[in-house]
Amino acid sequence: MALYRLIYVSQAVAGLEYPDLVKILEKSELNNKKVGITGMLSFGDSMFLQVLEGSRRVISQTYNRILLDPRHVNAELIDFSEIEHRDFGAWSMKVVQLGNQAGIRDIILKYSSSETFSPISMTGKQSLNFLRELTELYQRGTTS
Protein backbone atom coordinates (compact mmCIF):
# COMPACT_ATOMS: atom_id res chain seq x y z
CA MET A 1 0.00 0.00 0.00
CA ALA A 2 1.33 3.42 -0.93
CA LEU A 3 1.62 6.02 1.81
CA TYR A 4 0.88 9.70 1.42
CA ARG A 5 1.47 12.87 3.40
CA LEU A 6 -0.78 15.93 3.37
CA ILE A 7 0.25 19.25 4.92
CA TYR A 8 -2.13 22.19 5.19
CA VAL A 9 -2.38 25.51 6.95
CA SER A 10 -5.48 27.33 8.20
CA GLN A 11 -6.46 30.22 10.43
CA ALA A 12 -8.33 29.73 13.70
CA VAL A 13 -11.61 31.54 14.13
CA ALA A 14 -11.71 34.29 16.73
CA GLY A 15 -12.19 33.02 20.25
CA LEU A 16 -10.62 29.58 19.79
CA GLU A 17 -9.10 28.52 23.11
CA TYR A 18 -7.15 25.66 24.65
CA PRO A 19 -10.26 23.56 25.51
CA ASP A 20 -11.11 23.64 21.79
CA LEU A 21 -7.67 22.21 20.99
CA VAL A 22 -8.22 19.42 23.51
CA LYS A 23 -11.53 18.54 21.82
CA ILE A 24 -9.84 18.49 18.41
CA LEU A 25 -7.10 16.22 19.76
CA GLU A 26 -9.46 13.78 21.46
CA LYS A 27 -11.72 13.39 18.44
CA SER A 28 -8.79 13.21 15.99
CA GLU A 29 -6.96 10.56 18.01
CA LEU A 30 -10.07 8.37 18.11
CA ASN A 31 -10.98 8.79 14.43
CA ASN A 32 -7.43 8.57 13.07
CA LYS A 33 -6.48 5.46 15.00
CA LYS A 34 -9.44 3.61 13.46
CA VAL A 35 -8.34 4.38 9.88
CA GLY A 36 -4.55 4.30 10.19
CA ILE A 37 -3.80 8.03 10.00
CA THR A 38 -0.86 9.46 11.88
CA GLY A 39 0.13 13.09 12.19
CA MET A 40 0.54 16.25 14.13
CA LEU A 41 -1.31 19.54 14.54
CA SER A 42 0.60 22.63 15.62
CA PHE A 43 -1.16 25.79 16.71
CA GLY A 44 0.20 29.25 17.43
CA ASP A 45 -0.48 32.89 16.64
CA SER A 46 -4.03 31.87 15.55
CA MET A 47 -2.64 29.56 12.84
CA PHE A 48 -2.86 25.80 12.39
CA LEU A 49 -0.26 23.73 10.57
CA GLN A 50 -1.18 20.08 10.28
CA VAL A 51 0.37 16.99 8.73
CA LEU A 52 -1.55 13.77 8.02
CA GLU A 53 -0.02 10.47 6.91
CA GLY A 54 -1.75 7.35 5.63
CA SER A 55 -3.49 5.99 2.56
CA ARG A 56 -4.45 8.47 -0.16
CA ARG A 57 -8.17 7.73 0.10
CA VAL A 58 -8.35 8.02 3.87
CA ILE A 59 -6.26 11.21 3.93
CA SER A 60 -8.47 12.74 1.23
CA GLN A 61 -11.63 11.84 3.14
CA THR A 62 -10.19 13.20 6.39
CA TYR A 63 -9.03 16.44 4.77
CA ASN A 64 -12.46 16.96 3.19
CA ARG A 65 -14.02 16.56 6.63
CA ILE A 66 -11.46 18.95 8.18
CA LEU A 67 -12.35 21.61 5.60
CA LEU A 68 -15.93 21.63 6.96
CA ASP A 69 -14.83 22.28 10.56
CA PRO A 70 -16.12 25.72 11.63
CA ARG A 71 -13.23 26.28 14.06
CA HIS A 72 -10.94 27.39 11.24
CA VAL A 73 -11.03 29.27 7.94
CA ASN A 74 -8.84 29.89 4.91
CA ALA A 75 -7.44 26.36 4.70
CA GLU A 76 -4.68 26.07 2.14
CA LEU A 77 -3.04 22.88 0.93
CA ILE A 78 0.75 23.12 1.20
CA ASP A 79 1.77 19.63 0.10
CA PHE A 80 0.24 16.30 -0.84
CA SER A 81 2.73 13.67 -1.90
CA GLU A 82 3.62 10.01 -1.86
CA ILE A 83 6.11 9.07 0.86
CA GLU A 84 8.38 6.13 1.60
CA HIS A 85 7.66 6.02 5.35
CA ARG A 86 5.83 7.85 8.10
CA ASP A 87 7.62 10.57 10.04
CA PHE A 88 4.84 10.95 12.63
CA GLY A 89 4.00 7.28 13.15
CA ALA A 90 4.15 7.48 16.94
CA TRP A 91 0.99 9.59 17.05
CA SER A 92 -2.50 9.02 15.70
CA MET A 93 -2.62 12.76 16.32
CA LYS A 94 -0.64 15.08 18.52
CA VAL A 95 -1.50 18.71 19.17
CA VAL A 96 1.36 21.05 20.02
CA GLN A 97 0.42 24.52 21.14
CA LEU A 98 3.20 26.90 20.26
CA GLY A 99 4.09 29.36 22.96
CA ASN A 100 7.04 31.57 23.81
CA GLN A 101 9.37 28.73 24.78
CA ALA A 102 12.89 29.45 23.53
CA GLY A 103 13.26 26.18 21.64
CA ILE A 104 9.98 26.60 19.78
CA ARG A 105 10.62 30.23 18.92
CA ASP A 106 14.06 29.26 17.59
CA ILE A 107 12.47 26.71 15.26
CA ILE A 108 9.83 29.21 14.12
CA LEU A 109 12.50 31.80 13.36
CA LYS A 110 14.57 29.21 11.49
CA TYR A 111 11.75 28.68 8.97
CA SER A 112 10.07 32.11 9.03
CA SER A 113 10.94 35.73 8.49
CA SER A 114 9.99 36.60 12.08
CA GLU A 115 9.22 35.03 15.45
CA THR A 116 5.53 35.10 14.58
CA PHE A 117 4.27 31.67 13.56
CA SER A 118 3.20 32.17 9.95
CA PRO A 119 3.08 28.80 8.18
CA ILE A 120 1.22 30.34 5.25
CA SER A 121 4.58 31.64 4.04
CA MET A 122 6.38 28.28 4.37
CA THR A 123 7.06 25.94 1.48
CA GLY A 124 6.10 22.28 1.73
CA LYS A 125 9.68 21.33 2.58
CA GLN A 126 9.98 24.06 5.22
CA SER A 127 6.66 23.02 6.75
CA LEU A 128 7.70 19.39 6.95
CA ASN A 129 11.10 20.24 8.43
CA PHE A 130 9.46 22.61 10.92
CA LEU A 131 7.07 19.87 12.06
CA ARG A 132 9.88 17.29 12.25
CA GLU A 133 12.00 19.59 14.43
CA LEU A 134 9.02 20.46 16.60
CA THR A 135 8.37 16.73 17.06
CA GLU A 136 12.00 16.11 18.06
CA LEU A 137 11.86 18.99 20.54
CA TYR A 138 8.62 17.69 22.00
CA GLN A 139 9.89 14.11 22.28
CA ARG A 140 13.01 15.31 24.10
CA GLY A 141 10.72 17.04 26.56
CA THR A 142 12.33 20.44 26.10
CA THR A 143 9.18 22.41 25.19
CA SER A 144 8.41 23.53 28.71
From TrEMBL:
This is Blue light sensor protein. GO terms for molecular function: blue light photoreceptor activity; FAD binding. It comes from Pseudanabaena frigida. Transmembrane segments: none annotated. Residues 3-94 form the BLUF domain. InterPro entries: Acylphosphatase-like_dom_sf (IPR036046), BLUF_domain (IPR007024).
